[in-house]
Design a protein that fits this description.
This protein is α/β, with parallel strands linked by helices and 486 residues long. The strands form 4 sheets. The protein has a 6-stranded mixed β-sheet with strand order 6-7-8-3-9-10, with helices on both faces. Helix 15 crosses helix 18. It is flat, with a radius of gyration of 49 Å.
Length: 486
């Protein structure tokens, strides 16, 4: 009657429902069981049309909730976790309002109202304000609005949440009575409630189906063979060896026993027949009085915990390879991006060997800022061809670095101008002498003018090669040091 096919609901990167599929037959009480956040309420909201699915289908009698929403919604009554009641209305007013919304014919409203209140046991509360009702009665009013129009399907989300034990029993009885005429889908994380009410159980975890079937089928699925509890009197520790000799017994474990007794847990093979008779005869032959002998079955609680634990372990195994694949993918993208940037830079690189100049766009792409033009030195003004040393010039002395200059070599120039002496001293030790900016330009000009133009050019060229001619070494040394001070 209800078919859910490959249902998916995704919020960004979070998947609330992950390819969920199941079928609900007519007349069943179908239970959704799972921890908080498993996707139970999201699935129910999609089935009722309150929420759209990312992908997948919900079919009711062959009609899609997405394609024919109004037709499907007429067949569904929905009770959310928090009943949608109006506290300032009386019970009768609220149910009449719901009938108008669901387009129940006016001729049928009065009779239907009386029948619904009788089914849910709120007839004597018809004229009371909903604000004055207890939580149990509010839950009954919410269930009554789900019954308006007598839909074939009832979807109940946590119908007993927040109720006391007596109210829980009342709601359970009400649900079982409604199952005679309706197909009911019930969600809960209370194991005892699902086991007591539901015909078929669907256990979901993180939006995926973990197990599905009747309680008996789930017990059989989780069963690993019979487990038989035996308690005898008096103490007989040696009885365990006799029990192990029984055909079909795989293990015998000691159990909890009172003083003067012995307890054993006998594990049988999955295909073994009922071993209780053989165990009884073995204990009697050992001279023991049997106090307790029964078969232990895995309860729904144990089945649920085992299945959830297995699901979590499987998710861990899946997440690790996924994380590795995702990291490798990111690394590959980063490498491709770096290679692309390198290729682009190589394509825009100017051919400097051929004398090419990069354009402004190319300079920006290459992240290169053109260096500021250096101040032209006096030597740069001269033609390099004219500054080449001739064969007639004899190199007799090397010019020492400015930091190692000998003040004695420049004494004549220093006498001519004290400011020049300060400049030369600053070359030797800048920390001890004031800045050379105090030197007079006139004295500089006079000192420079003492050299002939030809000697000045030769001196400049020789300073670049680190040598001076012997006849004019003293004067040239003075000129070179002045140019470096500038």
């Amino acid at each position: 009657m209800i078919e859910v096919k490959d249902l998916v609901k995704q919020y960004g990167d979070h998947i609330a429902v992950d390819h969920l599929s199941f079928t609900v037959q007519k007349g069943q009480i179908y239970g959704f069981l799972g921890p908080n956040g498993a996707g139970k309420s999201t699935t129910m909201n999609i089935m009722t049309g309150y929420l759209g699915a990312t992908s997948g289908q919900v079919l009711v009698d062959g009609h899609s909730i997405a394609d024919e929403p109004e037709l499907v919604k007429r067949q569904i009554g929905y009770l959310p976790e928090l009943p949608p009641v109006y506290a300032d209305m009386t019970v009768a007013e609220y149910l009449s309002f719901c009938m108008q919304i669901k387009k129940v014919p006016k001729a049928e409203q009065e009779a239907q109202l009386a029948r619904i209140m009788q089914l849910t046991g709120i007839t004597n509360m018809a004229n009371r304000l909903i604000a004055n009702l207890s939580k149990g009665y509010r839950q009954r009013v919410g269930l009554s609005q789900a019954l308006v129009g007598f839909p074939q399907i009832l979807i109940l989300d946590e119908p007993t949440v927040g109720l006391d034990p007596e109210q829980i029993i009342e709601i359970r009885s009400l649900i079982q009575s409604l199952a005679k005429e309706h197909t009911i889908i019930l969600s809960s994380h209370i194991l005892s409630e699902v086991q007591a009410v539901c015909d078929t159980i669907l256990i979901i975890h993180h939006g995926r189906v973990v197990a599905q079937g009747t309680p008996a089928q789930l017990e059989q699925q989780m069963s690993q063979g019979q487990q038989i509890q035996l308690v005898v009197k008096p103490e007989r520790e040696a009885l365990s060896q006799a029990l192990c000799a029984i055909s079909g017994v795989t293990a015998v474990k000691p159990g909890k026993a009172q003083p003067g007794t012995s307890a054993f847990l006998v594990q049988a093979a999955p295909a073994a027949p009922d071993l209780r008779e053989a165990i009884f005869n073995t204990a009697v032959q050992a001279g023991c009085a049997i106090l307790e002998l029964h078969t232990e079955k895995a309860g729904l609680e144990q089945i649920y915990l085992t299945l959830i634990a297995e699901s979590q372990n499987q998710e861990k195994r899946v997440k690790i390879p996924f994380a590795l694949r995702r990291a490798a993918k990111k690394q590959k993208k980063a490498q491709a991006k770096a290679e692309k940037a390198g290729a682009q830079a190589n394509a825009l690189q100017p051919d400097l060997k051929a004398g090419g100049e990069p354009s402004e766009t190319e300079a920006d792409v290459l992240h290169q800022t053109p260096a500021p033009a250096a101040e032209a030195e006096p030597a740069a003004e001269a033609n390099p061809a004219e500054l080449e040393p001739t064969a007639e010039v004899e190199l007799t002395a090397e010019v020492e670095p400015a930091a190692k200059a000998n003040p004695a070599e420049v004494e004549p120039a220093a006498e001519a101008n004290p400011a020049a002496e300060a400049e030369l001293t600053a070359e030797a030790n800048p920390a001890e002498v004031e800045p050379t900016a105090e030197a007079e330009p006139t004295a500089e000009a006079e000192t420079t003018a003492e050299l002939e133009p030809t000697a000045q050019a030769e001196t400049t060229a020789q300073a670049e090669t680190g040598t001076l001619a012997a006849p004019e070494a003293g004067a040239a040394n003075h000129t070179v040091k002045k140019e470096e001070a500038k």
